[in-house]
Amino acid sequence: MSRTDCIEKLALWNDGWYKYAMTMASPNFGPRPAQTAVDLVVLHSISLPPGEYGGDAVGHFFCNQLDLDQHPYFKSLAGLHVSSHFYIRRHGELLQFVSADERAWHAGASSYGESNNCNDNSIGIELEGIEGGLFEHDQYETLVALCSAILQRYPITAIAGHEHIAPVRKTDPGLGFDWFLLQQGLGLASRFFPEREMSRVDARA
Q1: Tell me: the pLDDT tens digits for 57-84?
Q2: Tens of pLDDT along 126-173?
Q3: With contact defined as beta carbons under 8 Å apart, do 114 and 159 qualify?
C-alpha cells in the first residue's frame, strides 16, 4: 500500500469513528478481548416502535435515553442496555454510537464460523426497517460505502445477518434484504456471505 493510500485510509477513521457518520455516543460498550481480530460485519434491522420510521427512538434507546412512556411498546425495553456501532436510517443518514475499535452490545448469544460471542469480533450495523421488510435504495448506498470503508480498515472475512449468527433467536434483517445487491456493490466473492443467502442468489440468477 502506498503512502497516499495509507493517508486516505486513515483519513476516513479517527480511533474507530467513521468520518461520514454523525456521532451519537452510547455508554453501552466495552473493550474487545486482547488480540481479537475484527473480522465480521453483522447486519440487523430495527425500528421503534416496530414498523414506524423517522423518529429518534432508536438513537435514544442505544443511548439509554428512551422515554418509556412515549409508546406502550417501549415498556418491553425497560432495563435493556444495548448498542450498535452504526445505524442507517431510511433515507441513508448514518449514525455511529460506538467506536468500531470497541465492543458494542448488538449480537447477544451468537456464533458464526469458528467464532463465538460475536460481539467480540464484529461490527454491528442496524438498518431502519422491520424483519422481512424491504429496505430503501438510499440505505444500500450508505451501507455499501460504509462496508467499503470498514473493509479498508479491518480484516473482515465475513458479512452476515443477525439471523445467521443467532438463528434460534433472531430473523433479521430477513428475506427483504437484498444480499445480491450488497455483494455486487462491494465486489466481494460469495465466500464473504452466508452460504444460504448465496444459494438463494444463485437460484434467482
Answers
A1: 999 999 999 999 999 999 999 999 999 9
A2: 999 999 999 999 999 999 999 999 999 999 999 999 999 999 999 999
A3: no
Which set of grid coordinates corresponds to residue 45? 434491522
Q: Alpha helix locations (H) across 27-173?
A: 57-62, 137-153, 162-165
Q: Are 58 and 48 in contact (CB under 8 A)?
A: yes
Q: Is 126 a catalytic residue?
A: yes
d(CA 62, CA 95): 11
| CATH superfamily membership of 3-204 | Peptidoglycan recognition protein-like (3.40.80.10)
d(CA 63, CA 104): 12
Hey, is 161 helix, strand or coil? strand
**Hey, where are the domains in the chain?**
3-204
Q: Are 185 and 142 in contact (CB under 8 A)?
A: no
How far is 133 from 130, CA to CA, in rounded Å? 5
What's the pTM?
A: 0.94
Out of 114, 126, 136, 195, the active site residue is: 126
